[in-house]
């Protein structure tokens, strides 16, 4: 058996039966995949595509991050969070303005190392690694690509899905 992704088969750990959606409502679909170069089953979040080793971790993530269950409240502004660490990060970055990551090129500071890295790639290196599949537009972040798709290619995406499901 190859290490590349497989649809199903004996000994792969992937089931042909669809898994129920985290909300328990709507269309059922298989959330499990075999990731290339890995021999274990992964579960992906329907909302953001993040992968998890355990289905229970994926369901917890979905409920806390995308669901309505947000038990942790910021005492400063009332914003609610599904995960305590997210609330603590919010308090540090927004209310205490803790920004320990400084750009060597322009001295702008950031609360997260990943945001600094994105800033350097997009502003100083002018990288635009995210490409639209429907036109020649390129973007610095996945979020801006998704915004572009929602604004300009809603019908193109629907047509593409219909064409792929027909074949």
Quaternary structure annotation: single chain
Q: Give the strand tally.
A: 9
Given the structure, what is the number of helices?
5
Net shape: globular
Chain-averaged pLDDT: 74
Whole-angstrom Rg:
20 Å
Q: Report, as a whole number of angstroms, the end-to-end distance.
A: 26 Å
Structural class: alpha+beta
In percent, how helical is the residue content?
25-40%
Q: H/E series, N to C?
A: EEEHEEHEEHEEHH
The biggest beta sheet is recorded as:
3 strands, antiparallel
Strand neighbour order, sheet with most strands = 1-2-3
Low-confidence stretches: 1-31, 161-167
Q: Give the strand content.
A: 5-15%
GO molecular function: DNA-binding transcription factor activity, RNA polymerase II-specific; zinc ion binding
Main location: nucleus
InterPro entries: Znf_C2H2_sf, Znf_C2H2_type
Keywords: Metal-binding, Nucleus, Repeat, Zinc, Zinc-finger
Q: What does the secondary structure layout of this molecule look like, with pairings?
A:
Layout: E1 32-34, E2 41-44, E3 51-52, H1 55-66, E4 72-73, E5 80-81, H2 84-95, E6 101-102, E7 109-110, H3 113-124, E8 130-131, E9 138-139, H4 142-152, H5 154-166
Antiparallel strand pairs: 1-2, 2-3, 4-5, 6-7, 8-9
């Amino acid at each position: 058996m190859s290490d590349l992704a497989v649809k199903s088969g004996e000994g792969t750990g992937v089931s042909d039966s669809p898994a129920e959606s985290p909300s328990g409502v709507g269309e059922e679909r298989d959330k499990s995949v075999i990731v290339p170069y890995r021999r274990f089953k992964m579960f992906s979040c329907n909302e953001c595509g993040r992968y998890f080793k355990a289905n229970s971790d994926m369901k917890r993530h979905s409920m806390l991050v995308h669901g309505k269950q947000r038990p942790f409240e910021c005492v400063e502004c009332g914003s609610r969070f599904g995960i305590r660490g997210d609330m603590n990060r919010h308090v540090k970055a927004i209310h205490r303005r803790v920004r320990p990551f400084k750009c060597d090129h322009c001295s702008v500071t950031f609360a997260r190392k990943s945001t600094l890295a994105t800033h350097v790639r997009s502003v100083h290196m002018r990288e635009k690694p995210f490409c639209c599949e429907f036109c020649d537009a390129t973007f610095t972040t996945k979020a801006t690509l998704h915004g572009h798709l929602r604004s300009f290619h809603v019908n193109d995406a629907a047509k593409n899905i219909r064409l792929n499901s027909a074949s």
